[in-house]
Amino acid sequence: MNDNHPQHAAARAILPTLLHESSDWFVLNKPVGWHSVAARVTDGAPTIQEWISENLASQRDLPESGLVHRLDHSTSGCLLVARSALAQDGLRENFSAGFGGWAIGKKYLALVTGGIAPTGEFTLYFSSRHKGSAKVTVNEVGDRNEVGTCRWRVRRARDRRADAADPGAFDLIEVELVGPGRRHQIRAGLASLGHPLASDTLYRGAELRAEWNLSFAVLHAWKLVISGVEVISPSPRWADWER
Q: Do residues 18 and 66 both lie within one domain?
């Protein structure tokens, strides 16, 4: 893909915005279709790292322009950025922390194949497949460096009368990512339970009409809680869907 790809043009039309700032960090609202960091081989999609560097001179000398964590290309919402190398190191440690008051809280919104339990939790192990595969393998046992825990609750159950490609045909869930996040933890974890994200073709999710999320997997980083400060990204249209 390249800069002229329709998805890239649509993504570039929506720029990152500031959600909250403090003396040591700030939180951006990442649009869907943006990469978090610049890759050695780019597909032409915009990147948050480059946008920060171009717009905030004070961030240019920091690793990855101060980004504390990453969100998938398809994921929108809260992205934490440090203002200094010292703050970046500390925030990254807190972001990867397990249980406890010093860990940064992370909650997401997602549309998944309907019929998931009203509340639930999984602890699974996530490992990379062979080189060149984008998917991760999910197991019930594994190395402690691969473990990932998520809790969820249903915020809006599917409407069986809704068109199969509309948001109402899926369960809208709120997912808490507990402890250090693993690659594709929410996406692969829910898919392994039989409830893949809408439009997540990598994990065989059912299609959501492109107008709702540019045909990307439907996942939104809705809330971060940092040292008691709650930062919320506005819900996407698909989360507020009504017939």
A: yes
Other Cβ atoms closer than 10 A to 50: 15
Is there a domain that residue 242 lies in? no
Element (H, E) at 173: strand 171-178
Round to whole Å and give the CA distance between 229 and 103. Answer: 12
pLDDT tier for residue 1 given thresholds of 50, 70 and 90: very low
pLDDT tens digits, residue range 82-96? Answer: 999 999 999 998 888
The two tokens of residue 53 are 């560097």
**Could you tell me if 125 and 190 lie in one domain?**
yes
Task: Report helix, strand or coil for 64.
Answer: helix
Q: Region of 125 please: left (phi>0), alpha (psi -120 to 50) or beta.
A: beta
Characterize the bridge pairing of strands 76-82 and 25-30: antiparallel
Cα–Cα distance measured from residue 70 to residue 49, given in angstroms and rounded to the nearest whole number? 10
113 found inside a domain? yes
